[in-house]
Amino acid sequence: MTAPMNMQHTPHIRLSLGTKLGYAVGNVGLQMLIAAMSFLLMIFYTDVALVPPAVAGAALLVGKVWDTINDPLFGWLTDRTRSRHGRHRVYLIYGALPLAVVAAAVWMVPPGLSPWAAFVWIAVTYTLFDTVMTLVQLPYQAMAANMTQDYDERTSLTAFASMGALLGFFAGSVFMPLLVRAAPDARTGYALAGACFGLAAGVAVAVVAWRVREPATTGDLSPAAPNPPAATPGWASVRSTLLATLRNRPFVMLVSAAGLVRLGLTLVQASLAYFVIYQLQGDKGDLPRFMGILLAVVGVSLFVWKRVVDRWEKNRAYILGLVFCCAGLVALYWVGPGQQALVTGILVVVGIGMGAHWIVPFAMVPDTIDHGHMQAGERQTGMYYGLYGLVDKLARTLATVLVAGMLELTGYVPNVAQSAQALQGITAMTGLLPALCLVLAIPLLMAYPITRARHADLVRSVGAAAPAETASAAAVAATPVRQSEHTTRPAWEPSRNLPGGGHDFAHSR
User: Fold this and answer.
1) Residue stretches of the chain with pLDDT short of 50
2) Phi and psi (nearest 5°) for 2?
3) Which DSSP letter does residue 411 get?
4) How deeply is 291 buried, as exposed, middle or buried, from its count of CB atoms within 10 A (0-12, 13-18, 19+)?
5) Three-state SS annotation for 20-41
6) pLDDT more than 70, % of the chain
7) Exposure pattern of 151-160 as b/e (b: 16+ CB <10 Å)?
């Protein structure tokens, strides 16, 4: 099933409304699972399954150790997949049912487990879920980069996908607490809600596989692309593709910034339930209300951010959103018990800023892939989304582990009033530390080099290279990519020529 697929230059395809809506459905299901786990998984482990925070955090780390291998590996695999169902769509077809099963299993921790048994159960179920999630989510995301190369059409597709993600996030963060409260007890409620959410996610993925078709032209730059990936042995090919991806400077800058933002926002998500219940001294029913307000603001702001991105550069719009987020998160640190109205106003500011994160970085990733296409002469969408997904998931898990460590270090005791030390840790994890993560991402985004004009140059360079390589395949095979690097290298890329007139062959393909 795995072999390289060749590509001719992909046109600036205009996508139909039905295609955009069908693609967005997948995000409803996937983000539903992500939201439920980001907001509620840790408090489910500590307050319902009664697993010590340190044990739960250590078990989750097991899955992320595996992630350091499986995300790049699966990205490489999808780049070399050939099937009658398409390069990426085949994984959605065969992954929908397993995803539904393993997603439900995460919320079914048997009662009365010893700490060691709980560690094993959580590590196994979460690692299985994370593996199947990668096999589905990575191809789903990679489809977007190949569906069109139009700079603004990608933003439009991302806006639809972001609306789907918002609906899924709303369901995961608002409906799950409501379903749990409607059950006879919390443990049963989480198990039933997990099963329902797993089923919904599987159906959503199946809808994408049914409604969305990949373009026939996805893969290498030309039918005669030099050094075909299949000619390189397995692990050597993975390493070669990985190194080529890491040499893409705009991509590295973007994924580093987005990883910091993801770390900060996941700290907020993982801590918010503790903040509402213990610091704000609210009822558990307040959490769905606050999440509904936050996500409603995000949803409305998406339309505004779409217009901003149409008129501004993407990195500048992203920075503006982070500034809004930082202002709100810093203010959270000074919220006291019973100040629900103040929290509502702060969440409005945070939601406006979060809207930029929901749409902008996902519209930027395909642009960096175009840059890598120009550099390497072949289109490796899977590896790019594999690495992006790896950083995203590592950030999510690191945030969860940091929250678990904070609870352990500050003497958190579930289901009772907390000490001043524990409350201070909860408020720091909800406000100040997330704001610091977002601030650190801003310099990287300021230096991000791909503008609308430079992206147009990239697309023209790739389009001009395709017919030339097709006409002289033998010459290209004899002297790969190095010549094209000199003729199509964009202005922001450092020269590979050394001062003495030599060439930096260590960074050549």
Assistant:
1) 1-11, 217-233, 466-509
2) -100, 120
3) T
4) buried
5) HHHHHHHHHHHHHHHHHHHHHH
6) 80
7) bebbbbbbbb
